[in-house]
């Protein structure tokens, strides 16, 4: 019984769980890998949960032959973008101050592909509130290379 009262508490990663990792609060990468975990940067006004940016040419049409088979394509020379940002509301600035027809600036990457020209404009935003959850938003933005907000 005496041994049971004063037994040593395990601190390793083995069958004792991940207590040491919980204390350290870090993830170690062993080997050669330069990936990214999580969302790169904070967004103003929300605690960002997810950030997506879709790049696509606005024009992407197949030009058909006389028998209906693709012969060529007509493709825009720059990317349009569709951005989706989700997160919990933390204030009234930044993304929470977005308005229709006004260029919106995001902190995360929207120019990984292409040159990033064109103003990001608000398409829609869904605000969610629930009994046992945090107030959150799901915001969709888009841009086209030739459209610049004045």
Comma- or semicolon-separated keywords:
150 residues; 6 strands; extended; mainly beta
Unreliably modeled segments: none
Structural class: mainly beta
**Count of helical regions:** 2
Strand content: 25-35%
Count of distinct strands: 6
Strand line-up across the major sheet:
1-4-6-5
| Oligomeric state of shown chains | single chain
Order of helices and strands: HHEEEEEE
Distance between the termini: 78 Å
The gyration radius over C-alpha positions equals 24 Å
Helix-residue proportion: under 10%
Biggest pleated-sheet summary: 4 strands, antiparallel
Tally of discrete structural domains: 1
Written overview of the protein:
The relative contact order is 0.18. The protein has one domain. The chain has two helices and six strands. The mean pLDDT is 88. β5 (121-128) and β6 (136-143) form a beta hairpin. The chain has 150 residues and is mostly beta strands. The strands form two sheets. Strands 1-4-6-5 form a four-stranded antiparallel β-sheet, with no helix packed on it.
């Amino acid at each position: 019984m005496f041994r049971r009262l004063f037994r040593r508490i395990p601190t390793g990663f083995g069958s004792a769980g991940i207590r040491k990792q919980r204390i350290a609060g870090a993830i170690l990468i062993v080997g050669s890998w330069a990936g990214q975990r999580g969302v790169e940067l904070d967004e103003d006004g929300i605690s960002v949960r997810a950030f997506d940016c879709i790049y696509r040419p606005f024009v992407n049409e197949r030009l058909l032959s006389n028998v209906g088979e693709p012969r060529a394509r007509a493709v825009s020379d720059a990317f349009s973008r569709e951005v989706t940002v989700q997160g919990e509301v933390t204030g009234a600035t930044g993304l929470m101050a977005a308005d229709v027809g006004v260029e919106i600036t995001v902190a995360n990457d929207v120019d990984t592909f292409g040159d990033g020209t064109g103003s990001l404009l608000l398409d829609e935003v869904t605000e969610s509130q629930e009994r046992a959850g945090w107030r959150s938003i799901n915001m969709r933005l888009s841009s086209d290379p030739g459209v610049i907000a004045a």
